[in-house]
Design goal:
By secondary structure, this protein is α/β, with parallel strands linked by helices. 35% of the residues lie in helices and 25% in strands. The chain has 6 helices and 7 strands; from the N terminus they run αβαβααβαββββα.
Amino acid sequence: MSNYSLESMLAQPYDCLVLVNPQVQILDEISEKIQSFGVMHLNVSKELGNALMTIPTNERGLFAEEWLKNLLRELKEKTVLCSHPDLFFHPSLKIDFFTLIRQVARIKQVIILWPGEYSKDTLTYAIPDHHHYEVWKISESLLIQPKISIYPISAAQGA
């Protein structure tokens, strides 16, 4: 676990701040804390689910990527907190979510609440038994431009 407080993580310069914990309940608590600082919140799976309802299945992956980029581009807020990214990991969409957040970080400063784990340059989505489990090897070069910071976070850090 990182020794940083949530406030110190938010105070550091970043284009994308990824806060990682495998427990959605803890991420929801962190979300409430960040929103209390005045950061705009977007439940991306809920919003994307609504947007996908009229899109043909074979077009949903590309649509989802463009939808998120366009939505963030249109928002006036400096920073946007994106929670519940689960729908983006659905295999039918064929989206590499880490690549997508690197792209959106060039458009808008974002905080991503990531349900998974991060340790020793390995970022995972979900837990190994989950049917959408994914693993990324995160090299230093992937974190430089745009500036991405990834922190495992606990409930105590958000308290």
